[in-house]
Design a protein that fits this description.
The protein has 104 residues and is of the alpha+beta class. It has a four-stranded antiparallel β-sheet, with helices on one face.
Amino acid sequence: MINLVKNACEAIAPGEVVTCQLKRDCNPNYIQISVHNGGTLIPAEIMPKLTQPFCSGKSEGTGLGLAIVKRIVDAHEGTMSIQSNASAGTTISFTLPAFELSPI
């Protein structure tokens, strides 16, 4: 989550807004987390590469943030998606299996 928020903040100008949502509605066995910014459109040719190590849409980026997030999501049998368009900005969402905490 920290890597997603950090990437979202780095992609926009100071003072712009990053929103985070946590949902658990359609399927109670899963939880969805989304991070959104109103930054510039991510080019279509870069989108499928963003979760690969050392691929970055920014010249000063390391390309590790989203690659790390993707590996964590995969390790927990979740899914991840990236949506980006000029009018709505960019949203990165991931869905993970939810678990119930046992009472002590």
